[in-house]
Amino acid sequence: MEAKLAEFLGILTGDGYVTKLPRTFQFGIVVDAIKDKAYLENYVKPLVEELFEVKTKITFRNNALNLVFCSKKIGEYVISLGFPIGRKGNLPIVDFVLKNEKLWPHFLRGYFDTDGCIFWDKRKIYKKPYPRITFTTISENLARDLKNCLEKLGFPIRIAKKNRLTTLAKRGYSITYDIEFYGHKHLKMWNNLVGSSNPTKQLGLLEPR
């Protein structure tokens, strides 16, 4: 169950939140209503319900799907692991995951499936499409922890600090961190070690024909 919990924490770190209500905690995982619908309904929902023995519901708003559930007990437990309530502006990888290298691939899978990106560069300088996997975060701590974990797993990481105008700027954020690695060799490593549980990302990890 530790592996499933680590993957859930990766999902929560990517596209989730925890909110304190008067007598309980509300969890939400928000994804694209088209690209990630199958992932949320067929994978994330069963994962959460099996992991925590809790009922969830999925709501639709502004072209997004939100998987929601409430629990005081689960909220207190997840917070005890180091996950913050509310804003995740400087969130690190929680110690429960960070201190156990066996859990890193599971956390990374959940984080990639919600907040990662696979891009295939088709410029003529390459004999065939050249892959790049990227994570973008506003959290300097998370960027540092991702870089350290990925490098220890054997991925050569490039990290770039950027000042860009995004929707996050409206909430007081403009600095973002891009964590990237490239190449067919390292994509194969990723597929063998981490992989994906998201059907859309699984297709993206396949070389275009």
Based on the model shown, name its key terms:
single chain; 209 residues; alpha+beta; Endonuclease I-creI; four-stranded antiparallel beta sheet
Short structural summary:
With 209 residues, this protein is an alpha+beta fold.
Shape: globular
Terminal-residue CA separation: 38 Å
Alpha-carbon Rg, integer: 17 Å
Would you give the CATH topology of the largest domain? Answer: Endonuclease I-creI
Identify the strand order in the major beta sheet: 1-2-4-3
Query: Which CATH first-tier class of the largest domain would you pick?
Result: Alpha Beta
Question: Looking at this structure, what is the CATH superfamily of the largest domain?
Answer: Homing endonucleases
- Please give the CATH architecture of the largest domain: Roll
Helix content: 40-55%
Strand content: 25-35%
* Tally of separate helices: 8
User: What is the count of β-strands?
Assistant: 8
What summary fits the major beta sheet?
4 strands, antiparallel
Alpha-beta content class? alpha+beta
SSE succession: HEEHEEHHHEEHEEHH
What's the overall average pLDDT, rounded?
92
